[in-house]
Amino acid sequence: MERTKLNQVVTSERFIMFSKALIEDDYYKKMKPESKLTYSLLRNRFNLSISNEWIDSKGDVYLYYPNEKLAEDLNVGKDKVIRIKKELHEFGLLEEERQGFNNPNRIYVGNLEVRKVTENNLDISDTKVVAKCDFRKS
Questions:
Q1: What is the rounded CA–CA span in Å between residue 26 and residue 14?
Q2: pLDDT tens digits for the chain (138 residues)?
Q3: What is the rounded CA–CA span in Å between residue 48 and residue 136?
Q4: Nearest in space to 61 (alpha carbons), one of 45, 37, 39, 81
Q5: What is the rounded distance in angstroms from the CA atom of residue 117 to the CA atom of residue 108?
Q6: Is-contact 63 86, C-beta < 8 A?
Protein backbone atom coordinates (compact mmCIF):
# COMPACT_ATOMS: atom_id res chain seq x y z
CA MET A 1 0.00 0.00 0.00
CA GLU A 2 1.22 3.44 -0.90
CA ARG A 3 0.34 6.06 1.69
CA THR A 4 -1.33 9.31 0.70
CA LYS A 5 0.94 12.36 0.67
CA LEU A 6 -0.08 15.87 1.66
CA ASN A 7 0.27 17.26 -1.86
CA GLN A 8 -2.12 14.59 -3.17
CA VAL A 9 -4.80 15.53 -0.67
CA VAL A 10 -4.43 19.26 -1.29
CA THR A 11 -4.09 19.31 -5.07
CA SER A 12 -5.12 16.29 -7.04
CA GLU A 13 -7.46 14.08 -5.12
CA ARG A 14 -11.16 14.79 -5.33
CA PHE A 15 -13.96 13.30 -3.29
CA ILE A 16 -17.70 12.92 -3.59
CA MET A 17 -19.79 13.78 -0.55
CA PHE A 18 -21.91 10.93 0.77
CA SER A 19 -24.73 11.74 3.17
CA LYS A 20 -24.74 9.73 6.40
CA ALA A 21 -28.53 9.72 6.22
CA LEU A 22 -28.25 7.16 3.40
CA ILE A 23 -26.65 4.79 5.90
CA GLU A 24 -28.26 5.77 9.20
CA ASP A 25 -31.86 6.60 8.32
CA ASP A 26 -34.11 3.56 8.56
CA TYR A 27 -36.00 4.57 5.41
CA TYR A 28 -32.91 4.79 3.18
CA LYS A 29 -31.26 1.65 4.58
CA LYS A 30 -33.48 -0.32 2.20
CA MET A 31 -31.82 1.28 -0.83
CA LYS A 32 -29.24 -0.67 -2.78
CA PRO A 33 -25.64 0.57 -2.40
CA GLU A 34 -25.35 1.44 -6.10
CA SER A 35 -28.42 3.67 -5.79
CA LYS A 36 -26.85 5.47 -2.85
CA LEU A 37 -23.64 5.97 -4.82
CA THR A 38 -25.61 7.21 -7.82
CA TYR A 39 -27.47 9.73 -5.64
CA SER A 40 -24.11 11.05 -4.43
CA LEU A 41 -22.80 11.29 -8.01
CA LEU A 42 -25.89 13.19 -9.08
CA ARG A 43 -25.62 15.62 -6.15
CA ASN A 44 -21.98 16.15 -7.03
CA ARG A 45 -23.02 17.43 -10.46
CA PHE A 46 -24.78 20.46 -8.93
CA ASN A 47 -21.58 22.49 -9.22
CA LEU A 48 -21.64 21.96 -12.98
CA SER A 49 -25.32 22.89 -13.08
CA ILE A 50 -24.73 26.14 -11.24
CA SER A 51 -21.79 27.11 -13.44
CA ASN A 52 -23.94 26.43 -16.53
CA GLU A 53 -26.93 28.22 -14.98
CA TRP A 54 -29.18 25.16 -15.26
CA ILE A 55 -31.91 26.58 -13.07
CA ASP A 56 -35.53 26.52 -14.14
CA SER A 57 -38.11 29.29 -13.84
CA LYS A 58 -39.13 28.02 -10.36
CA GLY A 59 -35.55 28.28 -9.09
CA ASP A 60 -35.01 24.50 -9.06
CA VAL A 61 -31.55 23.28 -10.04
CA TYR A 62 -31.47 20.53 -12.64
CA LEU A 63 -28.71 18.60 -14.35
CA TYR A 64 -27.95 16.49 -17.36
CA TYR A 65 -26.33 13.10 -16.94
CA PRO A 66 -26.94 10.81 -19.93
CA ASN A 67 -27.54 7.15 -19.10
CA GLU A 68 -24.52 6.16 -21.18
CA LYS A 69 -22.20 8.42 -19.15
CA LEU A 70 -23.72 7.30 -15.85
CA ALA A 71 -23.33 3.65 -16.88
CA GLU A 72 -19.69 4.33 -17.73
CA ASP A 73 -19.03 6.12 -14.41
CA LEU A 74 -20.68 3.32 -12.40
CA ASN A 75 -19.19 0.57 -14.57
CA VAL A 76 -22.61 -1.01 -15.15
CA GLY A 77 -24.89 -1.59 -18.10
CA LYS A 78 -27.57 0.77 -19.37
CA ASP A 79 -30.34 -1.49 -18.03
CA LYS A 80 -28.81 -1.32 -14.55
CA VAL A 81 -28.77 2.49 -14.73
CA ILE A 82 -32.48 2.46 -15.54
CA ARG A 83 -33.18 0.20 -12.52
CA ILE A 84 -31.10 2.46 -10.27
CA LYS A 85 -32.95 5.56 -11.47
CA LYS A 86 -36.25 3.78 -10.88
CA GLU A 87 -35.27 3.01 -7.29
CA LEU A 88 -34.19 6.62 -6.71
CA HIS A 89 -37.55 7.74 -8.10
CA GLU A 90 -39.38 5.34 -5.75
CA PHE A 91 -37.55 6.86 -2.78
CA GLY A 92 -38.47 10.37 -3.93
CA LEU A 93 -34.90 11.33 -4.80
CA LEU A 94 -35.09 11.68 -8.58
CA GLU A 95 -37.40 13.17 -11.18
CA GLU A 96 -36.77 13.30 -14.91
CA GLU A 97 -38.36 15.54 -17.51
CA ARG A 98 -38.19 14.64 -21.17
CA GLN A 99 -36.81 17.40 -23.37
CA GLY A 100 -37.76 15.99 -26.74
CA PHE A 101 -36.34 13.62 -29.31
CA ASN A 102 -32.53 13.15 -29.14
CA ASN A 103 -32.25 15.54 -26.19
CA PRO A 104 -31.13 14.32 -22.76
CA ASN A 105 -33.67 14.30 -19.96
CA ARG A 106 -33.59 17.10 -17.43
CA ILE A 107 -32.82 15.51 -14.04
CA TYR A 108 -34.05 16.94 -10.76
CA VAL A 109 -32.45 15.50 -7.63
CA GLY A 110 -34.55 15.46 -4.47
CA ASN A 111 -33.45 16.30 -0.97
CA LEU A 112 -33.01 13.61 1.63
CA GLU A 113 -35.66 13.58 4.29
CA VAL A 114 -34.38 12.18 7.56
CA ARG A 115 -37.31 10.25 8.94
CA LYS A 116 -36.06 8.04 11.76
CA VAL A 117 -32.61 7.16 12.98
CA THR A 118 -32.22 4.29 15.40
CA GLU A 119 -30.17 4.85 18.53
CA ASN A 120 -27.73 2.14 17.44
CA ASN A 121 -26.69 4.27 14.47
CA LEU A 122 -25.71 7.35 16.43
CA ASP A 123 -22.01 7.90 17.02
CA ILE A 124 -21.16 7.39 20.66
CA SER A 125 -19.18 10.62 20.55
CA ASP A 126 -22.38 12.45 19.56
CA THR A 127 -24.48 11.22 22.47
CA LYS A 128 -22.34 10.41 25.48
CA VAL A 129 -19.37 11.82 27.27
CA VAL A 130 -16.52 9.36 27.27
CA ALA A 131 -15.18 8.83 30.78
CA LYS A 132 -11.49 9.25 31.57
CA CYS A 133 -9.64 6.01 31.05
CA ASP A 134 -6.38 4.83 32.51
CA PHE A 135 -4.23 4.18 29.46
CA ARG A 136 -1.07 2.19 29.94
CA LYS A 137 2.04 3.20 28.13
CA SER A 138 3.51 0.46 26.02
A1: 29
A2: 877 676 666 666 677 889 999 999 999 999 999 999 999 999 999 888 998 999 999 999 999 999 999 999 999 999 999 999 999 999 999 999 998 888 889 999 999 988 765 555 555 455 454 455 554 554
A3: 52
A4: 45
A5: 26
A6: no
